Amino acid sequence: MRQIQGAPGARVLAFGGYQPANVVTNEHLAKTMDTSDEWIRSRVGIVERRIAGPEESEVDLAVQAGGKALAASGLSASDIDLVIVATCTLETQIPNAASRVAHRLGIDAPGAFDVNAACAGFCYALSAAADAIRGGSATHVLVVAAEKLSQWVDWTDRTTAVIFGDGAGAAVVGPSDTPGIGPVAWGSVGEKADAIKVKDRNSFLQQEGQAVFRWATTALHPVARRACERAGVRPEDLAAFVPHQANLRIIEAIARKLGAEKAVIAKDIVLSGNTSAASIPLALSRMIERGEVPSGGLALLLGFGAGLTYAGQVIEIP
Amino acid sequence: MALTEQEILAGLGKIINEITGIPAAEVTPEKSFVDDLDIDSLSMVEIAVAAQDEFGVEIPDDQLKNLKTVKDVINFIQS
């Protein structure tokens, strides 16, 4: 038997993002539940979010974002030999989303698997993509994070209904002579598994808000620092910090403790809501589109959420 | 090493200022977090965590909800 080697490194060639057209404002939510625009803005930081209708599935969202990333990369569908979809909100599990997304994008016979690490899913999937390229398992990988949280949310529960949104973000990953995706820093806290969960097939998403807030604002900045360390960079070197868009106050608390003074901090949640795994690639794709971050600069990605799971890595911005 | 009320109050003032922007001078024992200082439960969690680092006393979430005034927190830390 023999082993093969892949490329010395991997990098993100392009990002793409997509959210449904339907905008749901705080005022709209305040009509059907006991909440207010002011409460939502101060507590979570969200002004509006996007919600998909019944005709748009999480796979549809993935196809849109994946197609945009593919187009931006300059590659064609035939160049992709692995598709990974990060999602925890599939309506059905069988068949997986990746095979369907690949087929609809005209990608012929790639490897195809889904990753479920909730809001850390994109960082986990990106790490797997980079390892596949360096290990010789793939040459070009399409990583898509797609979530339709609206189909898992109790729309009468003001503690969750105001937070979540639908969307997808994607990255095309390719080989590189120099490191473009740093080593991942990941982990999990299984003893807190009950903090964010869907109990059974007939239940909705529920979370212990205060416990999750405490965990997120204390346990994650050391992970962020570890991801920087493993990539051989300092927080001061970062041009961007893109944490999972869970809650604006969590984002600000982690950013404050990380001390990445020169980094632009992603705050996409304000107009997008919390889109679980999609939030990181969605935020970064927009920051790039709007010219807010320099190509070639370093971005720290940090996903965290249900599991509880977390993963982060430094990448070079395409 | 027992801390005096003044020492704890000064420490809390600094913490609350860092987390909420409220001037430390406004943090006085009789003030209520919610009604007087306009500090919500999420900020209380951040304050509790910072207080744990500063004073070495853990304030779990289920105890936190009973601490309504600055004095309540000072008493909790001293006990």
From TrEMBL, chain B:
The keyword Metal-binding does not apply. Residues 6-79 form the Carrier domain. Coiled coil: none annotated. InterPro entries: ACP, ACP-like_sf, PP-bd_ACP. The keyword NAD does not apply. GO terms for cellular component: cytosol; membrane. It is found in: Cytoplasm. It comes from the Bacteria. Gene3D superfamilies: ACP-like. Keywords: Cytoplasm, Fatty acid biosynthesis, Fatty acid metabolism, Lipid biosynthesis, Lipid metabolism, Phosphopantetheine, Phosphoprotein. Pathway: Lipid metabolism; fatty acid biosynthesis. The modification O-(pantetheine 4'-phosphoryl)serine is found at S41. GO terms for biological process: lipid A biosynthetic process. Pfam families: PP-binding. One of its GO terms (molecular function) is acyl carrier activity. 4'-phosphopantetheine is transferred from CoA to a specific serine of apo-ACP by AcpS. This modification is essential for activity because fatty acids are bound in thioester linkage to the sulfhydryl of the prosthetic group. Carrier of the growing fatty acid chain in fatty acid biosynthesis. Belongs to the acyl carrier protein (ACP) family. This is Acyl carrier protein. It comes from Thermopolyspora flexuosa. The gene is acpP.
